[in-house]
Specification:
The chain is mostly helical. The two termini are 22 Å apart. It has helices at 10-44, 48-51, 53-72, 78-98, 102-129, 136-165, 167-188, 203-227, 230-236, 244-265, 270-290, 295-322, 328-357, 359-379. It contains 14 helices and no strands.
């Protein structure tokens, strides 16, 4: 029989559902350039590696602004602030849909990056605040389902709209989706207290938080160094451009499987789960290189890689919050910043390696980053303990 503090109340479940919807919009906004990268390159006459910097600009803003913005807004009411960030996503996407030049396209992405700097810091701590401590990992996994749905439905859907009606229509549709998400989230999400000032961190706890954040950044670097250019990987393997959207749908479904697996162990054996996810990602990325000549083999290897990566973010988010080093909002902000350092550096380094040395070298860089993150998890036991101690 479930203990009383192991249950998620109905109102909390409804709130988590609202966070799933908001996260869906946020992640679709973040990742959608991956699906329409070839169209954007043709529209503005920019090389693929340069267009990939749209991911880097976005991530750099998040990395720089996540912690300062979270500190500045720590006394604001959480729900209105969260709703404002979702609305800002719509503003950025509308600016992109109307952009007459590549520079203004980057400006629209920058608006989204500012929203993202606050959104994931707020949404992660919000999810944890809705439930008892013993099931916070499960709550984080539920809220993170919105990210997986962004991969499964959001990015393929927007990519399909782009293929049928053009990339401007795709971003316009995403702007409308953001407005609908604001309205639904406003109606369904319970209010929680403001975060308040952060406590002073003990040295050991602060070190554990930094360790978890470093692993998170390294894993995101390994993923986005290659995944930013997954359209190129698929085209080189013989996948038709019209089939890229269905392939992205498959990869999104693989991410849902990874997140579901993470939810099974995150409150019981988080360290073992994190190691398993990193090892799977490293091995599957290596298989992309070995199966490069096979269309089906490449799609299968990428799918397995995304299963592994689909579990990693929620393990890292939970690890940062569980250090109890800072307030939940600030711990989530540190994690958010680290993620986007990894995303930005991954996209930039990946583009450089792809242009200078080709796809095989890029695959090696990605696999090595996942392997290094696994080694750090083995070493940093305070950041990734075998069992969870509930305060």
């Amino acid at each position: 029989m479930a203990r009383g503090d192991d249950r998620i109340r109905f109102d909390a479940a409804v709130g988590l559902g609202a966070l799933v919807l908001a996260t869906f919009v946020a992640v679709t906004t973040e990742i959608v350039p991956v699906g329409v990268l070839p169209q954007l390159s043709r529209a503005f006459g920019t090389p693929t590696a340069v267009t990939g910097l749209l991911v880097t600009v976005y991530a750099a803003l998040v990395a720089v602004l996540a912690v300062p913005l979270t500190r500045i807004t720590d006394r604001f009411a959480r729900k209105p602030l969260l709703l404002a960030t979702i609305a800002l996503y719509s503003v950025g996407n509308l600016a992109i849909a109307l952009a007459p030049s590549f520079a203004l396209l980057c400006a629209g992405r920058a608006i989204g990056g500012v929203a993202h700097a606050l959104f994931f810091s707020l949404s992660s701590s919000y999810a944890a605040a809705l439930v008892p401590a013993r099931v916070q990992g499960r709550a984080l996994a539920i809220a993170a389902a919105g990210a997986s749905l962004g991969y499964v439905l959001g990015v393929p859907l927007v990519t399909s709209i782009g293929a049928a009606l053009g990339w401007r229509a795709a971003f316009g549709a995403l702007a409308v989706g953001g407005v609908l998400a604001v309205l639904a989230t406003a109606a369904a999400l319970p209010a929680v207290p403001s975060a308040g000032p952060a406590p002073r961190a003990e040295r050991g706890r602060r070190g554990a938080l930094i360790g978890a954040a470093v692993v998170n950044g390294l894993a995101f670097f390994g993923h986005y160094a290659l995944y930013t250019y997954v359209s190129t990987v698929l085209l080189d393997a013989g996948v038709a451009e019209a089939a890229i959207a269905p392939a992205l749908f498959l990869f999104g479904a693989a991410g849902v499987v990874g997140l579901w697996l993470a939810g099974l162990v995150i409150d019981r054996r988080p360290r073992a789960g994190m190691l398993g996810a990193l090892v799977l990602a490293a091995g599957a990325v290596s298989a992309v290189l070995m199966l490069q000549a096979s269309t089906g083999g490449t799609v299968g290897a990428v799918s397995a890689w995304v299963v592994g990566f689909g579990a990693i973010p929620v393990f890292c988010t939970a690890a940062c919050l569980r250090t109890r080093s800072l307030s939940p909002d600030l711990s989530a902000a540190v994690n958010n910043s680290a993620s986007n350092v990894g995303i930005g550096l991954g996209a930039a380094v990946g583009g450089g390696v792809l242009a200078a040395a080709g796809l095989p070298a890029l695959v090696v860089v990605s696999a090595a980053a996942f392997a290094a993150a696994a080694v750090l998890v083995l070493v940093l036991r305070a950041s990734f303990p075998p069992r969870v101690e509930h305060a």
